[in-house]
Design brief:
- By secondary structure, the chain is of the alpha/beta class.
- The protein has 4 domains: about 110 residues, Rossmann fold; about 180 residues, NAD(P)-binding Rossmann-like Domain (Rossmann fold, 3-Layer(aba) Sandwich); about 140 residues, 2-Layer Sandwich (60s Ribosomal Protein L30, Chain: A), CATH 3.30.1330; about 80 residues, Alpha-Beta Plaits, CATH 3.30.70.
- The chain contains 17 helices and 22 strands.
- A 7-stranded parallel β-sheet has the order 8-7-6-9-10-11-12, sandwiched between helices. A 6-stranded mixed β-sheet has the order 14-13-15-16-17-18, covered by helices on one side.
- The longest helix has 24 residues.
- The radius of gyration is 30 Å and the shape is elongated.
- The protein starts with a strand and ends with a strand.
- It binds 1,4-dihydronicotinamide adenine dinucleotide (NAI) and 2-oxo-3-(phosphonooxy)propanoic acid.
- The site of 2-oxo-3-(phosphonooxy)propanoic acid (HPV) has 11 residues, from loops.
Amino acid sequence: MKILVSDDIAQEGIDILNQEYQVDVKTKLSEDELVEIIGSYDALVVRSATKVTAKIMENSNLKVIGRAGVGVDNIDLEAATKKGILVVNAPEGNTTAASEHTIALLMALARNIPEAVRSLKNKVWDRKRFMGIELNGKTLGVVGLGRIGREVAKKAIGLGMNILAYDPYIIKQQVENIDIKVVDLDSVLKEADFITFHVPLTKSTYHMVGEKEFSMMKDGVMLINCARGGIIDEEALYEALKSGKVAGCALDVFEKEPPLESPLLDLPNLIATPHLGASTQEAQVSVAVDVAKDVIRALKGEMVKNPVNMVHIRPEEYSEIRPFVDLAEKMGSFYTQLRNGRISEVEMIYTGKIERMDVKMITTAGIKGILSNILQTPANLVNAPFLARERGIKIIEKKINQEQDAPGVVTMKVTTDKGVGSVTGTVQANADERIVAVDEYKIDLIPRGNILLTFHRDRPGIVGKVGTLLGKNDINIAYMQLGRKSYRGEALMALGVDENLPDDILSEIRKIDGMENAVLIKF
Ligand SMILES: NC(=O)C1=CN([C@@H]2O[C@H](COP(=O)(O)OP(=O)(O)OC[C@H]3O[C@@H](n4cnc5c(N)ncnc54)[C@H](O)[C@@H]3O)[C@@H](O)[C@H]2O)C=CC1
Ligand SMILES: O=C(O)C(=O)COP(=O)(O)O
């Protein structure tokens, strides 16, 4: 396996990658240069400089893209997901660095530090021009109250500031005990003396601050953007700074980086740093190590810690969930080997002890198993939900509450244009997977090796005929199971066979009088 690192990451991360796989570090590549070489790599590690476009991913064999940092707006996530490329990031390592940089910019703004430094270095001793304002007692608006937003708020509280925050996706009670008042965006805009942004760049945050929002702010407000360029409309910001509506703004990030052509840089009340939020030695080591470990986990097929485009399971739950993930994938594969028809709906029903857990990954594995037999595109835990949606398959998850210690049971109910069928499985002690029902037939199958399933009439002679036919062709039967709906009614037989069953023998089995269907399932 080969890994390409296309932005500067700390050596500590490269060393970890190098212990397991071959690593090439090639930075400042153009899109075309990347397209040309990417085919020979299994993993790509980036920071924010490399734009990982659909074109780069298109003909790649990438299994994972690692982002040594938080923001993944430089990676085309939709294209990655469609292609089944896992994206992982390192969201924890630079929280302190980015929040400290935000506070540094806040103070620099309030006390005119950059301009004062510049003036003095030009040998001008001007104390009057650089009169500042105090932070103590002022209101700081925090837009986006995730890891960095919260850390900034805590630090600002320490400086005597009052915090008004806007984040529609958090639970208010989580933060109100640390003296943060959660309000709507309009209130932040209207009431804050300083506003700092800590949201990711998404469709909903792109230009979330423009002309209209500036008009709502206090005259003389000061802004800090240490999150992403594009959140504040730069043209509108230019006007607001020029008019003095916004007294000062500190930007660490720009819509186009580097922003060397930006007229904003000419304004005296704009201070700027070249995307330095995460640039501390500590943060860089931390994110490089974190992402390297996750990239290795991904390449080894292990559960990663920080997936961006795949369901996430907490490590403490994963060991319990894992056998069910494997089982569900086999159930899905079992189902589509057994039946055909255009699938419109898959319902995953969970009962017993599994019902209390986060089952999203089990559902996804079931879908992966289903799709693996019907699609050319390889399905995995990243792209399975996307591929299912693309084919118009509705996925339903249902949990049925049972007594606490009942064994975990998963039923996959599949609706096709030919009807509804189901398969049920469970995991016994020692991660022993079992398929325990097919439609209404109760069975007890280990989903392993070759299994011959026959649907036939429950009448004397049929089982014997199948056995004789297999014996005549030197095919050994490992085990046998029988189930029936009623005496002499419809019946099911499952035979574990040690050898492969050629198509001509399967056809002969299908011709046995009373036989409705016979299918070979392979695991
Ligand atoms: N300047 C730099 O070097 C750095 C910049 N960043 C940027 O900071 C951003 C935030 O990082 P973290 O706090 O670690 O991420 P996070 O995911 O912990 O927090 C983001 C918060 O934004 C909130 N949010 C999302 N959409 C929103 C909306 N429309 N309105 C209000 N709130 C919204 C989310 O609910 C979440 O609480 C990153 O996405 C990245 O772009 C991060 C690290 C360094
Ligand atoms: O982690 C982030 O989101 C950052 O913005 C840091 O970017 P960088 O890795 O310094 O290019």
